[in-house]
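Translate sequence into structure tokens.
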Amino acid sequence: MTVVLSDAILGLSLTKFLLHLLNFAILFTVLWIVLYKPVRKFIRERQERIEKQQKDAQENLRSSEEARKEAEDRLRALDEELAEKRAAAEKETEAACDRLVADASARAETIVKTAEEKAKRNADEVVAGAKASVKDVAVTLAESILGEKVDEVDDSLIDAALKDWKNG
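Result follows.
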């Protein structure tokens, strides 16, 4: 039966079969140590490197998203600040315009008052000149009529007559 058994296994004897089996086990063990562990280590390191790159990419994405949000917030704050400054500038401009209008109105009032005062002085001067002329004419007329000079008492009467004439 040994003969039959040895012929049945690919024409090898039991010892040769066991030796081939032992060689296969040694080869498998050597290949396991030499190839499988380093390849497995290489694959694990590569997976770790890829996972690290993914984490870095996610972190970069998160940080860029935060930076974008910060930039948007700053931009929004700058827009609000610009709107506030624009409103303040408009208020200042409006206040300056109001001050200019008030100054112009005050100057116009001053000019009108000055003109009225000048006109009143001119009118007073004309009245005074006319009064003197009327006095002179009245005196000349009275002298010619009466033939004598009118004294200071008569001047006061003429002045009273002129006042009545002016008021009336």
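Note: Residues 2-167 form one domain.
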